[in-house]
Amino acid sequence: MRRTTTVCFLVSFIFPAALMAGVVTPLHEDWRVQSACKFDAKGDAVSSGNFSTDGWIKAAVPSTVLAAQVAAGVFPDPYFGDNLRKIPGADYPIGRNFADLPMPDNSPYRCGWWFRKIFEASAPESGQRSWLHFGGINYRADIWLNGHRIADTSTIAGAYRTYDFDVTDQLKPGKTNVLAVETFAPTEKDLGVTWVDWNPAPPDKDMGLWGRVDLITSGVVTVRSPFAATHYRDSSLSIADLTVSAELHNSSDHAVKGVVTGSAAGVKFEKAVELAAHEDRTVLLTPQEFPQLQIHSPKPWWPYQMGTPHLEHLIVGFSEAGKLSDEQSIDFGFREVTSELTANGSRLFRINGKPILIRGGGWAQDMLLRTDDHRLREQFRMVRDLNLNTIRLEGKLEPEEFFHLADVQGILIMPGWSCCDHWEQWKSWTPEDLTTATASLRSQLMRLRGHPSVFVWLNGSDNAPPADVERAYLQVESDIRWPNPILSAASSANTTVGLNGVKMTGPYDYVAPSYWYVDKKNGGAYGFNTETSPGPAIPSLASRKKFLPDPEAWPASATWKLHYGGGEFANLKVFDEAMTAIYAAPRSSAEYERMAQTLAYDSERSMFEAYSRNKYDSTGVIQWMLNNAWPSMIWHLYDYNLEAGAGYYATKKACEPLHIQYSYDDHSIIVVNSTYALVPRLHSTIRVHTQNSQNWKDLYSAEATIDLAADSSIRVADIPEALFSRAGQILYVDLTLSNDAGNVLSRNFYWVPTTLTTFDWPRTDYTHTPASQYEDLSDLTQLPAAQVEAHAEIETTEHGREIHLHLENKSAVLAFQISAAARTTDGGLIAPVLWSDNWIELTPGESRIVTALLPQDSASTGEPVIQLSGWNLAPQTITPAVVTRPH
């Protein structure tokens, strides 16, 4: 038990999923923002009713300073061209980690910046208290209300802390109130919101109110952070023990007797509680004390592809003398996460007792920390379309809606602290840093622990914290009853707590597809790789037009290069050299884009397929990254404008629920079942061809019928070694998996050189393993022309507007890497567009129908056209016929 007399206590509200008995007034609109260097006034004056804000920027909160300026038109779009570098204070060296550098002397963000809000406050009932909640302040702040200082920079420090202040005595009920917050940017020695080599950093270092601000009324006893932890009795999942907890705070100067009441999954409970004056207490309700919390036949929460992400509801309230003082509710799931080390030392996670191969991508928040619920929903839709089950967060901890969507969609979340800045520069930490770090950890874990989607926490990223920091972190995690596994790092930087069982060995730059199969020491398909990638991902021309003034420049211009990464990734040398060696030197930006897409497709597919083949010798792989914080040429499966490129469709194919695939190391054909059910009588077809001049030649075929066990990968055939004896030839491997009814469940097509890339293993670094001799696929640039006939229809269905594209290869040669893109009639971008398949091949005489789901707002741009292109076919523009079918 702990008693406190302070007006501030650092706990976590849960919004928007949480509901309270009191009134929640979001302080969202009609803020004013201005630099403290523009006027001479103190906080008491700024927070008074007669202070003038003429000339201040209008803003909505949450917002950083720069985000408010951009929204107000002070600066042009910083994501376009080199506009970011023209903003005052953005003159740090290109490619450097701004988090490690001091704010320039001439930066306007060396000053404090004020956020000011005028609002009305209704009169509370007798005995009620009023609270100001801050969901995230970066980095320090002085907070004033109606001329009174509520908190200063000795209290407010830390980007990931949450704050709740009792302002009952400072509030003016029924009158106009003024809230003024002077924010200060993080220094190079602070635990801020930082950007590393993913993208540049904004010149304000994301200073401002990045979390929501709310005024809340309650009784004298508040309820915070309700939580239901699940433990299944056995593998039958027939009985689940629920342990319910919540944080109570008595804000009065006298003892209070009352009752904690509530329900979990419809089961009611209550417990008498007495709180001393100003006492904070964790109330705990166990199934031993309350047998009704032994839940029979619960509906489990499952991740995507494992089952249904079923959610239940938890309500916890506190009543005094029969009157409800406060109440909160959250959604939760009956799910339990465990982990173990496999025989080869790999970290294997289990959800409700069942093993899961983690397949995911690294998430990037918007660089200005802007939020857009519609955009967020679209991205979660894309994650499921990709057939991924996990998103990793490295030190970028999104607002509540992100985690709520993950719960609803069944997408696992892998959060943890950041790398490569003060977060891991422990030797230079002060006692204040440790206090800030542990308070930040408590704030975030209190809000994350109740989300069934969150399955682990990482106390470090590239490195594990030293013993004293780790002890402090582990104490917080014990105190708040963190229910999930904890890793000391996303790497093999183990501590005395035990082995992480994960690796961070790269690569992050281009490697040939065979790498993922033949590498046994670095990023190859064994163990759990927490971040890895074949590197660059070049956006389409339509997407480049949205962020480059010279989208067709060739060679790539300096403006293009601003949209590469930082550090070792400030150029695309590895990728470009591989492209030239494997295919040819591109002669235009269009050729460069086309070859880049195919390079990405080939290696992304192989990466995920190799890890799938080897489960559970391999236990997880995280593509670095899933998305971008600003328009970028590297590390994404879909770009900043939400366009899905070739790497997206390669990943979608590789991770499909039932999948047939080729192995580069031993020529085996593998069928993978990512579902958790037996699938009987599947029919596999294997065909191998060559293409010489105008001749398409069949070399080999085989068929097999198999029963596919749940969550398995099995070897169904081997392509004869003799087919690979002719050096310099390309083999085309065509694979099909179908069911008894003849429905195609998986279709996969490979272009395999008979002589693979050889790797210079001794020169491996964290970015990649160089090639000592690249494979030769230059014949792909000399394919004979194919003729593909195409027509399309567009119709409105229950899912939205859908395109049906009919393709037929009328020629006697292969049509290679056919890409379909929905565009406006003037060639403008429409995104996201989710095709059933893309970047496909058509063998001679083959016909296929591919479908696309258009974005919900696409009707506003008029009827789309389809731009069809490929390596060896003339570009076509197709106007779909609008059809209406009876339903």
What does this structure look like?
- The protein is an alpha+beta fold and 887 residues long.
- Strands 5-4-7-12-9-10 form a 6-stranded antiparallel sheet. Strands 1, 15, 16, 19 and 20 form a 5-stranded antiparallel sheet that branches.
- The protein starts with a strand and ends in a 5-residue tail after the last strand.
Give a quick rundown of the structure.
With 887 residues, the chain is α+β, with helices and mostly antiparallel strands. The chain contains 12 helices and 50 strands. The strands form 13 sheets. A 6-stranded antiparallel beta sheet has the order 5-4-7-12-9-10.
> Based on CA inertia axes, which overall geometry fits?
globular
Termini distance? 64 Å
Output mean pLDDT.
Answer: 95
| Count of discrete alpha- or pi-helical segments spanning 4 or more residues | 12
Q: How much helix is in the residues?
A: 10-25%
State Rg.
29 Å
Sheet with most strands: 6 strands, antiparallel
- Annotation, overall tally of beta strands: 50
Poorly predicted tracts of residues? 1-20
Strand content: 25-35%
What spatial order of strands do you see in the largest sheet? 5-4-7-12-9-10
Determine the structural class based on helices, strands and strand pairing: alpha+beta
